[in-house]
Amino acid sequence: GQCRVVCPTGALMIKKDIDRAYEALQNKNKRVIAQIAPAVRVAIGEDFGLQPGQISMGKIVAALRKLGFDQVFDTAVGADLTVIEEAEELMDRIQRKEKLPLFSSCCPSWFKYAEQKHPELMENVSSCLSPMQMFGAVIKEQFKKEKFSEEKENIVIAIMPCTAKKYEAARPENAINGERQVDMVITTQELAIMIQENGIVFNELEDEAIDMPFGFTSGAGVIFGVSGGVSEAVLRYYYKERNASALKGISYSGVRGMEGVKEATAEIDGRTVRIGVVHGLKNAEKLIRKIKRGEEKFDFIEVMACPGGCIGGAGQPIPQNENVRKLRAKGIYKVDKSLPIKRSDDNPTIDALYNGVLNSNRHILHRDGKH
Ligand code: SF4
Predict the structure, then answer these.
(1) Among this protein's residues, is 179 annotated catalytic?
(2) Going by fewer Cβ within 10 Å, which terminus of the chain is more open, N or C?
(3) With contact defined as beta carbons under 8 Å apart, do 363 and 141 qualify?
(4) pLDDT (tens digit, 9 = 90+) per residue, 335-349?
C-alpha cells in the first residue's frame, strides 16, 4: 500500500530475514541445514562479476560452510521426488479419466493465483508439495531418525531464486504437527549480501561437494529451474528407453525454449499425452480461458509465474533481461548434461528415501496428506 512508497519495506524485510539467518547460525543449540534450489547456481555469480549461466554450485556450498551451515543439500533431490509423485499422479488421473488437465503445483505464485482466481480449478492442481517443501519434510524426518552426539534443533534454510517461496514456507498447512518444514527462505540476492558482508571472496572459493545422505541429484531434478523443466523431467520418467537419443527426442519435443506458451505431445503406453508449458500468469490465464471455451485440451499443464521459470525469479540478481535468462537456462542444461544420472527414478538417493524415511510415510510429500 501507501507505506511502500515512503519507506523501504523491501529493504527492511531483506535485513530481517538475513538477521534471522545469522541468529540461527550463531546459536549453538541449532543445527542449520541448507538446501539450494537449481536456479541459484547459474545466477549468484553475477553478483560477483561472473557471467550469467556460469555454474557456481561448488562455490555456493563452500560459502555456506564458511557462513557456518552444518549441512548443505541440493533441492534438486526434492525435485526428483516431485517428478515421481507428480508423474504417478498424472498417470493415475489419465487412467481414471478424471480431473484433467493436471496443473503443476510447485510455483507458489501460480498456486496462490489459482486459489484466488480459479478456486474451481483447485482439484486440478497437483496435490504434490513443491520440491522445497518435500525436501524440507524429508530432511526433518531423516534428521529426527539419525543419532547425533548432540541434541540440537534442526533448522532448514532454503536458498531460493524466489520471494514467493518465503510465503509458501510459512503457510500453516505446510507445517507438520505445527512444525515448519522449511524454517526460513533466503533469496539468491540475500545470500550474495551475506557472502559480501562476511568478506568471503566468492570467486576464489574452491568447489565443495554437497553432503550425504542426499549427495546425488539427477539432471531431471536440476532442470526444474527452467520453464519446461518439470514437463521434461516427467517425460523422462515415463520413457522406458534410457539411451541418449530417447532423451534428446524429449528435449526437442517442444518443452524447451523461451516462448510464453509451449506444447508437447508424447506417446506413453499407447496413449497420446498432451502437455502445455506456460510461464507468466497472463499466459496461464489465456490458456485457462481457451481450455474453458473448449478450444484447447491438455492432460498436463506446467505453470511458472516468472519469465523463463525460476531462473527469472524475483530473488535473482539484477539486471534481468531475456539475454540473461537465456544464458542462465543454458547453464541449467549444461549441469544436466554433466550429470551421469538423468532420470529421477535412477537417482540412488531417491530409492534409499522410498525405502527409508518415506516408507509408509509418503503422504508427507502431499498437500492433502494422502497419496
Ligand atoms: Fe518462484 Fe518465480 Fe519460480 Fe514461481 S517461477 S517458484 S514465483 S521463482
Answers:
(1) no
(2) N
(3) no
(4) 999 999 999 999 999
